[in-house]
Amino acid sequence: MIKTIEWTDGAVRLIDQTRLPLEEVFVDCADYRCIAEAIKTMKIRGAPAIGVAAAFGLALAAYSSGARSSSELLEDVRKAKSVLAETRPTAANLFWALDRVVKKAEENVGADVNQLRDIITEEAIRIAEEDRETNERMGAIGQELISDGDNILTHCNTGALAASEYGTALGVIRAAWDRGKKIRVYACETRPLLQGARLTAWELKKLGIPAVLIVDGAAGYFMSQGRIDKVFVGADCVTSNGDTANKIGTYSLAVLARENNIPFYVVSPVSTIDINLKSGQEIIIEDRPDEEVTQIMDCRIAPEGFEVANPSFDVTPAGLITAIVTEKRIAYPPYTSSLKALMEKA
What we know:
Blueprint: E1 5-7, E2 12-15, E3 26-29, H1 32-40, H2 47-64, H3 70-85, H4 92-107, H5 113-142, E4 151-154, H6 169-178, E5 184-188, H7 195-207, E6 211-214, H8 219-224, E7 230-233, E8 237-239, E9 244-247, H9 250-259, E10 264-267, E11 273-274, H10 291-294, E12 295-296, E13 299-300, E14 313-316, E15 323-325, E16 330-331, H11 335-344
Parallel strand pairs: 4-5, 4-7, 5-6, 7-10, 8-11, 10-15
Antiparallel strand pairs: 1-2, 2-3, 8-9, 9-14, 12-13, 15-16
């Protein structure tokens, strides 16, 4: 698989996901504003990948800064953090990564300015390395929930493209496949930007996993026909009570799964859990540009001037979630206590 994002000696290279699957184009960023633009325009997306990109953005800010003292360098990094923090308001990993790198810088502000640059860069690289390890552990843990012969529904893209490598929900599916389980994946197209059709299908084909692409509105039909055994989705933010924000349409799938007695699993690294949020009502839901709905690629599909609503995420209540898979272990209801215990040991 292609590496989603990587640090390359003072620059960051990432694959432009808006161009897939038609062409594989890479973007090279030499400053944090380029990273911010890539996150905002979804050239890079997926909760873990956004976190890695944000960390690399701060490393670029430190790397390119002309600061002559550590305190000046820290100020430049904080300015970059402010810009990067405005890109995707729902993504918990974004803020987690920014806070972690800045905290590391603050703890070492007494170091020489060049040493501090290295410390910031090393922390960002460490976040990327930990992301792959985290995803592989989630895959190993979560695949235990998958049985040989399962038909699995997934939504949006949660594979290697949504992380630095490997993936979250699709990483669990990949781990099951790699262990010899004969499975089939039903991938929702995921309007409006078609991450399922463009990205998940692209990844599944490369991995050689049997899969079927369906329109979003067909999920209930396949569930009612007994053709779906389990649902696995990712998360952009999980609150302390287990409410989960994920790509728009996830809530509908959870309701349909409950109606048809189908297990509904969320796969999320601990870094996506915001234990300070009490419920999904506190999650900020990002609104995206109208053009994402009124056109597909460069083709307009709606009348000019028609009113559009385009929330990027919805919130699935904890009561509809069978379990939450993390790199530590699988959390089960009641989430208020299980997630708290998990975070305390994180």
